[in-house]
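Example 3.2
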Amino acid sequence: MGNGKNHYLIIKGETGRFHFNMMAKNGKVVASSRTVKTKEACEELAQTAKTILQDESRFIISESKDKQFYFIVYDAGGVMLIQSEMYKRRGNVKAAVKRVSAMHNAPTLFDYTTKIG
């Protein structure tokens, strides 16, 4: 269920590593970050994302083997920062890029459960 606002949700996974999900207003995951060892590193990663994601040229749209579309954004060092969910149409992933790019002002929320979903 959504909270009516776009937000970043930081999660501690079953392995003890952290990542964040970019959540849409409707509560659906739009994209997920790579995992990092600490909560502090994840918070820094989310802040980096807020800066990088303002530039739509940083989004690389790709097609999967099963003909679905997704985007990946890399950080300045060339390491994957976030990857989107899969979309059936190229137009839908392009719309997602615009939504995610506009999320740079979204607040960060925390969840220390083991897993969402």
